[in-house]
From TrEMBL:
<feature type="domain" description="Acetyl-coenzyme A synthetase N-terminal">
    <location>
        <begin position="59"/>
        <end position="119"/>
    </location>
</feature>
<keyword id="KW-0067">ATP-binding</keyword>
<dbReference type="GO" id="GO:0003987">
    <property type="term" value="F:acetate-CoA ligase activity"/>
</dbReference>
<dbReference type="InterPro" id="IPR032387">
    <property type="entry name" value="ACAS_N"/>
</dbReference>
<protein>
    <recommendedName>
        <fullName>acetate--CoA ligase</fullName>
        <ecNumber>6.2.1.1</ecNumber>
    </recommendedName>
</protein>
<dbReference type="Pfam" id="PF16177">
    <property type="entry name" value="ACAS_N"/>
</dbReference>
<dbReference type="InterPro" id="IPR045851">
    <property type="entry name" value="AMP-bd_C_sf"/>
</dbReference>
<dbReference type="Pfam" id="PF00501">
    <property type="entry name" value="AMP-binding"/>
</dbReference>
<dbReference type="InterPro" id="IPR000873">
    <property type="entry name" value="AMP-dep_synth/lig_dom"/>
</dbReference>
<dbReference type="GO" id="GO:0019427">
    <property type="term" value="P:acetyl-CoA biosynthetic process from acetate"/>
</dbReference>
<dbReference type="InterPro" id="IPR042099">
    <property type="entry name" value="ANL_N_sf"/>
</dbReference>
<comment type="similarity">
    <text>Belongs to the ATP-dependent AMP-binding enzyme family.</text>
</comment>
<keyword id="KW-0436">Ligase</keyword>
<dbReference type="Pfam" id="PF13193">
    <property type="entry name" value="AMP-binding_C"/>
</dbReference>
<dbReference type="InterPro" id="IPR011904">
    <property type="entry name" value="Ac_CoA_lig"/>
</dbReference>
<feature type="domain" description="AMP-dependent synthetase/ligase">
    <location>
        <begin position="126"/>
        <end position="514"/>
    </location>
</feature>
<dbReference type="GO" id="GO:0006085">
    <property type="term" value="P:acetyl-CoA biosynthetic process"/>
</dbReference>
Length: 692
């Protein structure tokens, strides 16, 4: 059995007070204890009583089964979904060990199904056709809309028919570049219905990044809208797409169809640049198509979507998720981790341009027949009370967001929260980065009125769904800890040599064995998949995160151990920002590190050296930042440019980032040994220039 299982069994003795001690006692208890790891917050009895997993014992029983009999555990769950044809004799097959041959993960192979059918048709057949699938809330107050499951299906079918009509076939890729309109999940589901592979590109990415993604998957069509409002700003998305399509054509991928939704609240069609023959207004054509569309039945292992994410080196990686395992995993993690009940109204603030929006705005909730709130706007517009206004308006019961938003709202004061009732809320969720205990407490005490458990969900684009997260009502929580693994997940902590360490420890977070939602490859680059994730610690999937496990078996994520930084829950590769900076004609060299940032978690700090003879100026600083905005997107713009006459390098020419990190975070007494530097003087120079 797994080491983890032994941990949990041995710790079962400790939190046995769950359900006996109220959370109020626990808060007092928490204050009395010095360290974070002794700070326990117990679920209230009332919550636990109604929870799907009401106790640690129940969790442990289910967890044990999922580890000792994964095939039985997952196939039982999968049987609740619709399969045109059942999977073959093997529920799963895997090789996660590079020493034993190519990495391969398959779940429900041979099973024939369709995720759109399971999310929509299946729920309608079960009598939920009139249930609201999506409540949509626009940027401005008073702009809203909704779709029932039946009307959502009709809209999806019309778009599926259109896509088929323009020649999109099973396996073809479609790029979606849309803001949070209902048309975004509609477009994803329409692709899934006909077996097309969607590649959603977050609408904050630049034309260049969009072009790269269009070229990489040789998109058959692009779906976008003319403009979007974000707070007081209007962003002309279609102009960005136009530039991207010119770029991608230069690389040999010319897209014949650009379906454009007219987002009237942001911009009229008359003001939109138009390319006859290529551009089509969504509203002019899609509603003319039939409202039913046959499903394209696909194999469980057929690809569902591509989603690009940043790595520590090189170009973004196209993470590939397939249909069957992803379907079962997102549905199941959604259900248990949020203690989902059919009466819930669920709101996740993430954008569908990121994995959170794929798994927990679109697929996970809709597969459960849930009612989902989709919000187009900015959470502090028109004022920082907007989220709670939305919670009251739709009677949101489950609210899932990121620590960066919690911290930014926390700074605005409690008054914006307490003026709203929020009494509908019962479960809160957090994702994207570790949530610091003080933000956790504010979220718990102020937003949730000390009543709602917080699911701090650790997972990744690659994992498809939640990996480590507290099941609400089951566990006493520790603010800042993602607690325990989901069913079927065996997290292991390894040392530098890749040896598993047990008990209280810290090291690199890996996962042993596969799970249904795991990504199957990197698009077009299986070798990079193996090298990045499976070679560092043979036998395991390596997450790239550091983690410690305390004496009670709780997991504490400590951040990335590679050159990936996490800004407001968005992953950014330092190498990508560096390569954008050095593309500036006056920049000779760049080194980017992450620094602590009060709201964003991490900020981007860039050291740059300039081409011989070029003076550093405010103008140049701005133009360097603009280059990054144009090449990647505004969210990747450096917070700080630090002009460097030289960078600290070893004699072999390797930049010593360790030193740069210390300089960036002003930990000048912790610079460590600088004697191995080719020129130790650069360090003093850099420190002297810190405030330029
Ligand atoms: C990285 C994955 C998964 C959806 C959002 C980001 C960090 C994510 C947590 C958490 C601590 C977290 C990790 C991870 N991360 N959630 N609850 N606690 N760290 O997806 O862009 O693939 O980023 O985000 O560092 O590796 P992503």
């Amino acid at each position: 059995t797994s080491n983890y299982l032994r941990h949990v069994e041995s710790m079962m003795v400790l939190p046995s007070g769950a359900g006996e001690i109220s959370h109020l006692n626990a808060v007092i208890l928490g204050e009395a204890l010095a360290s974070e790891e002794n700070d326990l917050v117990f679920p209230c009895e009332e919550f636990s009583r109604q929870a799907l997993v009401p106790s640690p014992e129940k969790y442990l029983g289910m967890y044990k089964r999922s580890i000792t009999d994964p095939a039985g555990f997952w196939s039982e769950i999968a049987s609740e979904f619709y399969w045109k044809q059942k999977w073959g004799t093997q529920v799963y097959s895997e090789n996660l060990d590079v020493r034993k041959g190519p990495i391969k993960i398959e779940w429900f192979k041979g099973g024939i199904t369709n995720i759109c059918y399971n999310a929509l048709d299946r729920n309608i057949e079960a009598g939920n056709g009139d249930k609201i699938a999506i409540y949509w809330e626009g940027n401005d107050l008073g702009q809203d809309g909704s779709l029932t499951y039946s009307s959502l299906l009709e809209k999806v079918c019309q778009l599926s028919n259109f896509l088929k009509d323009i020649g999109v076939q099973k396996g073809d890729a479609v790029v979606i570049y849309l803001p949070m309109l209902m048309e975004l999940p509609i477009a994803m589901l329409a692709c899934a219905r006909i077996g097309a592979v969607h590649s959603v590109v977050f609408a904050g990415f630049s034309a260049e990044s969009l072009a790269q993604r269009i070229v990489d998957c040789k998109a058959k069509a692009v779906i976008t809208c003319n403009a979007v409002q974000r707070g007081p700003k209007v962003i002309h998305l279609k102009d960005i797409v136009d530039v991207a399509l010119v770029e991608s054509a230069k690389s040999g991928v010319s897209v014949d169809v650009c379906l454009t939704y007219e987002n009237q609240s942001a911009m009229n069609r008359q003001d939109t640049e138009w390319k006859q023959g290529r551009d089509i207004w969504w509203q002019d054509i899609v509603p003319k198509y039939p409202t039913t569309c046959e499903v394209e039945w696909v194999d469980a292992e057929d690809p569902l979507f591509l989603l690009y994410t940043s790595g520590s080196t090189g170009r973004p990686k196209g993470v590939v998720h397939t249909t069957g395992g992803y379907m079962i995993y997102t549905a199941t993690t959604f259900k248990y981790t949020f203690d989902y009940k059919p009466s819930d109204i669920y709101w996740c603030t993430a954008d569908c341009g990121w994995i959170t929006g794929h798994s927990y705005v679109t697929y996970g909730p809709l597969l459960n027949g849930a009612t989902v709130v989709v919000f187009e706007g900015a959470p502090s517009y028109p004022d920082p009370g907007r989220c709670w206004d939305i919670v009251d308006k739709y009677k949101v019961t489950i609210f899932y967001t990121a620590p960066t938003l919690v911290r930014s709202l926390m700074r605005e004061g409690d008054e914006y929260v307490t003026r709203y009732s929020r009494k509908s809320l019962r479960v809160l969720g957090s994702v994207g980065e570790p949530i610091n205990p003080s933000a956790w407490r504010w979220f718990f005490n102020v937003v949730g009125d000390s009543r709602c458990p917080i699911s701090d969900t650790w997972w990744q684009t690659e994992t498809g769904g939640f990996m480590i997260a507290p099941l609400p009502g089951a566990w006493p929580q520790k603010p800042g800890s993602a607690t325990f693994p989901f069913f079927g997940i065996q997290p292991v902590i390894v040392d530098e040599k890749g040896t598993e360490i047990e008990g209280e420890c810290s090291g690199y977070l890996c996962v042993k064995s596969s799970w249904p939602g795991a990504f199957r490859t990197l698009y077009g680059d299986h070798e990079r998949y193996e090298t990045t994730y499976f070679k560092p610690f043979p036998g395991y999937y390596f997450s790239g995160d550091g983690c410690s496990r305390d004496k009670d078996g709780y997991h504490w994520l400590t951040g990335r151990v590679d050159d990936v930084i996490n800004v407001s829950g968005h992953r950014i590769g330092t190498a990508e920002v560096e390569s954008a900076l050095v593309s500036h004609p006056q920049c000779a060299e760049a080194a980017v590190v992450g620094v602590e940032h009060e709201v964003k978690g991490q900020g981007i700090y860039a050291f740059v050296t300039l081409v011989e003879g070029v003076p550093y100026s405010e103008e140049l600083r701005k133009s360097l930042i603009l280059t990054v905005r144009n090449q990647i997107g505004a969210f990747a713009a450096p917070d700080k440019i630090h002009w460097a006459p030289g960078l600290p390098k070893t004699r072999s020419g390797k930049i010593m980032r360790r030193i740069l990190r210390k300089i960036a975070s002003r930990q000048l007494d912790e610079l460590g040994d600088t004697s191995t530097l080719a020129d130790p003087n650069v360090v003093d120079q850099l420190i002297a220039l810190s405030d330029c």
